[in-house]
Amino acid sequence: MVVVEQIFPSLTWRIRHEVMYPDHPLDFVKLEGDFDGIHFGLYLDHELTGVVSLFVKGEEAQFRKLAILQHVQNQGLGKQLMEYLIDFCKIQHIRKLWCNARTNAQEFYFRLGFRATDETYQAHGFDFVKLELDLG
After folding, report:
1. Which domain holds residue 34?
2. pLDDT > 90 fraction of the chain, expressed in percent and rounded
């Protein structure tokens, strides 16, 4: 059984750390604006298994740190979490959703309707591209 719900920011940190930056200290995955964001957790059989964080500014929102635990990746859980996030944004009348995605993950976002922009950069040993999704 899969359930997505809003969670407290600190609940995202363990999964962000384990999935995205396991070789860095835990503080590395804490975002300066975490307590200003809206955070969602995906629970698989009552276990927190995936997280994503949303930061809204007017009619635009950025999501950050989408992470699904390694042992359950490629089972559609990231897609379910993102579909929930997209629906939430539509209800909130957000017109554009965007992220800075690792280039090796951009195909996942393309399948959800995101498009790549010309904005790219490198950080922490990864290549990133800004992706956008128009919602209205």
Report:
1. 2-97
2. 99
